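User: These chains co-purify. Model them together.
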Amino acid sequence: MSTKPARTRVAPSPTGHMHLGTARTALYCYLLARQTGGQFLMRLEDTDLKRTVEGTEQELYDGLRWLGLQYDEGPDIGGPYGPYRQTERREIYRHHTQTLIASGHAYPCFCTPERLDKVRQEQMKNKQNPHYDGTCRVIPPEEAARRVADGESYIVRFKMPTEGVTVAHDHLRGDITIENSQLNDYVLVRSDGLPTYHLAAMVDDHEMGITHVIRSSEWLATFPLHVNIIRAFGWEEPVFAHLSVFLKPSGKGKMSKRDSAAAKLDGHSIFVKDLDELGFTPEGVLNWCALMGWGVAEDDVMTLDQMVERFSIDNLTPSPAAINFQKLDHFNATHIRMFSTEDLAARIKPYFVREGLPVDDATLLQIVPLIRERLVTLDDCLSFAAFFFKGEVTPASEDLVAKGLDAKQSAEIARKSYEILSALPSLSHAEAEPPMRAYVEAAGLAPNQVFGILRVATTGQKVSPPLFESMEIIGRDKCLKRIQNAIEILENM
RNA sequence: GCCUCCAUCGUCUAGUGGCCCAGGACGAAGCCCUCUCAAGGCUUAAACCGGGGUUCGAAUCCCCGUGGAGGCACCA
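Assistant: Joint model of the two components:
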């Protein structure tokens, strides 16, 4: 564990729904920053105007807050190293681009996209690796400067070394070595004047004092380029940790659009916004995605604070991890069980409200202990407790018939139960259960037969929280009315 | 095709040369508890990709295969 305060950052693009990968990167960054007493920041990488999708920037802020990963600096809250939106940092990039051109590490390129395309196709045809052919690399700087001044359209490319090797150090994998001849003269600045990721991210990470760059392993391929850029500037390199990618549940390849749709049908998703809507909790989601790529020996159920205590960048794993939604269910259910009654009540209340049910806090507080260990997702509260707030229930006639008995016998049991229960002053758990138990025994019936009829009668469903606890909450009058109704249904079968 | 990375139960992982006939978790199976469904308790099955080395000793180090993943854009 590092003791120096770490400055970390999550730097997503507003180009689509916020997904799990962003959430996990943000989580690790958050954990490292909090643990070391450093800062966690959020930076918006919005330099590709064409791919920007309206609304996704807000989704990013909302998603991070929902997860509880509050950043110390960011586009929407500011900070001492702002602006945190890359499109607002053009001057900074322009300045650094000039530095690179002046030092001979970058050069303007006047090749048209059409020509580049043709070259690429030619190379593919000849079974060569597609790469920039270096046409503009040899243009004398003065001539290039003149053409730029004349207003000719251009981009800026990084001048990669052509010989030797580049050794880049990844915290999880060690040294990564690549022949420089394999590297391309990558584009640093586009013709619209905006920088590409390669330039913008390196500049920003340096300018913002980032000490640990935790990012997706998709960047591994261009990692050597990035360290070359940093070294060209003469800057100190931050610690780099490239996280493994998420594989689809089958383990074969990355999650695709189709896989996402399939997951959604199954009540799961890789998008943070969906996860919220599907009834998952931030605690469950965080615990779940924390453990895909972070090896914990034992006691893997953790709150965010516990994760802060136990996290170590050294325990991150480099191999790809298949997504396992069953495990998400498990962690979500486990965290729900850890919530206090008041907390859980507040979290499930909106679901009843949304259904237009007359939910009141006092009743809700009584219900929560009965359903807490039955919920996998928060929206399960409806199937387990909606009947508490309904005026009447509509049991299916066939459900009212007890196992091994016919409708007539079931009706008789319902009548007898009504007799017993209606004689009681209240239907509290303590008062109602003993006489009913006695009846079951005297009649030589299975508890399940009698209680089953009552369950369906009073709750309208075959699966419910425990019977007597439920009846107590429903209340005497309502229960008796519902049993009466069930008797009628059984008699008319 | 080329480059890079990765490789322990079905899945996520612990393991950094002897504490490992490999530990935990999810899932699966069984039993117990039980008014349904859960939760809980107990138990079981289940892995070091293959082959060579190095070493007294290898899941752990090296090499070669094989498999998997990522990348090869004026996207990030």
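The longest helix of chain A spans residues 20-36.
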